[in-house]
Design brief:
Distance between the termini: 66 Å
Organism: Methylocapsa polymorpha
Helix content: 25-40%
Protein name: Molybdopterin oxidoreductase family protein
Oligomer: single chain
Family: Belongs to the prokaryotic molybdopterin-containing oxidoreductase family.
Keywords: Iron, Iron-sulfur, Metal-binding
Structural class: alpha/beta
Shape: globular
InterPro entries: Asp_de-COase-like_dom_sf, MoPterin_dinucl-bd_dom, Mopterin_OxRdtase, Mopterin_OxRdtase_4Fe-4S_dom, Prok_Mopterin_Oxidored, YoaE_C
Largest sheet: 6 strands, mixed
Number of strands: 25
Amino acid sequence: MNAAPQISRRPSTCPHDCPSVCALDVEVLDGRSIGRIHGAKQQSYTAGVICAKVARYAERIHHPDRLLYPLKRTGPKGSGSFARISWEEALDRIADNFLKAERDFGAESVWPYYYGGTMGRLMRDGINRLTHAKRYSRFYGSICVNIAWPGFIAGTGRMAGPDPREMAKSDCVVIWGTNAVVTQVNVMTHAIRARKERGAKIVAIDIYRNATMERADLALCLKPGTDGALACAVMHVLFRDGLADRDYLKKYTDAPHEFEAHLETRTPEWAAAITGLRPEEIEAFAHLVGRRKKTFFRLGYGFSRQRNGAVNMHAASCIAAVTGAWKEEGGGAFHNNGAIFHMRQRLIEGLDVVDSSIRALDQSRTGPILTGDPDALEGGGPVKAMLVQNTNPMSVAPDQTKVRRGFSRDDLFVAVHEQFMTETAAMADIILPATMFLEHDDFYLGGGHQHIGFGPKLIEPPGECRNNHEVICALAARLGAEHPGFAMSPRQLIDATLRESGWGGLAELEEKRWLDAQPDFETAHYLNGFAWPDKKFRFKPDWGNVPFGTSVPRGPWRDMPNLPDHWGAIETPNEAYPFRLATSPARNFLNSSFTETRSSRAAEGKPKVLIHPRDAARLGVAEGDRLVLGNARGQVRLMAALFDGLQPGVMISEGIMPNALFEDGKGINTLTGADTVAPYGGAAFHDIRVWARKAIDPVKEADRGQASEMAGGVSV
């Protein structure tokens, strides 16, 4: 008989791109493999709760399809033909191609490319040290927060808010623009506690009846991109019915009288025509938050997926200022706590050698960049070589037709450091096998809460997998890049960064398991004033000067309204494209992560689109029929799922399914635009207008699709 494994429980932190950044207890079996993963009960935010996909992480880390050895391409790009090579050969080939690109086209022709496949500060951001030391094209990461964050900061002046644990002390929790049950499970932990212990009401505002809406006391299902209209109508009612806190407004806001006058015409009836809600629903919501001063507005990342998302986020955040909810424990508005950590990553990122004159290429415009768009290239030369870590642009980047065309270029050298054979890895010239979070040391910041967490190396990686830091340092040596960070170990870099940032050292973090960085109540609630020179919350944002990193304004930012409003910058339906499509998160995937695990794929099934029964009837579509969606960017085929929990004219496709699972190999982001979104860039994943029709046989479909695109689209 086989002896039972020796199980130890070890601490860690979830590395994935999720605001919850859960503290974990990991079962380690015989010191070699992992079993079940649990939430750490002692951490006051995670409180022992984690999502199901991370709980079964053993399925992912011990997956038989993990990449284990370096590979070189032996066939055409995208053919899947690779041969095993040594690490020395792989690194030498990458370095030789980078040096050749630099000689022939200049250092800016090399573009190190990364994002949030891990949120570990060292393993995610260390690639920037190589970028800056070599003066390569910088990477402008815009695909996630760039629309929502400026909207929140436009009012407060700072990306921080009340302690998220205060949701448990609220009388009303408004979960707006996030399906928290699926994407931020710990939000529900604290909201439901408030309901049980205080009789709090939970309000959910979203664009379809999802798992969070099902658990709410009041669920408002509005049209995509109309949140600003709802917020303005709510504030109209608050002023009209004497529910605005005028003392608070006088002391803490910049233009309350001008704002009140502006809202006089933003009635519930006005907003109903825009949002699709009934006026009485808007009135009920306004009276609920107006009478329950301890209202906590938990504002999500759905705001960061619309072309008018920054305006909508700002408008929603203004409600707490009108009611004076900021004064209350359990009240105020929260999106992310990024500013409280004041992390100084000089050594990790090489920030002391940054040359700000070097172009920063926008991630959301990957397709135009790689296909030679002069504007996207910022007037510079072409990208000739790339190293990709922690992201899968062949699946997640917008305007996939151009992305695929760009990665298919024979004159573009691509190295991909990955865990699985993703669609991006399949387009690479060199593939390097990567570690997972339990196979290296790193530290993490809780954007959705207030903890700094550590994730130690718990087991050895399989095969010849190496971590991101090892790869960057090995390439630096071959490329002649110099910086003290290249000579330091991961633990040394973590320790030095924590010390420079005022958080003690690594030994203290390891001993405590996590550090609570939450500011005092007065600071978190801005009772000493908001983070502007005049200390006032801004109803009148200065969109061109929002303190959003070192970014410069992009897109049509000068057209943004100077007071909260409905800004019609979205892709509105028209005769050619009568439907609005949103690509909302799936419960069992996280962007393109977990799409490789059997349990997640089984739970999500085939690519499908939710369509209202009335729309389906007009199209002659029944449950399970094949449906074609299209616009000027391309076409995709999905299975129709009839669903009455959204407004007619709206469609939802959940999750970023692998392109290969779609009938013609074209994933949902084929339809997403790569235009520059105001005020600081971003990708409008939930802001897509399309035509739709029932699929016919492939030959006829191809002929009809070609004709329809020449005509500019097909109406219903």
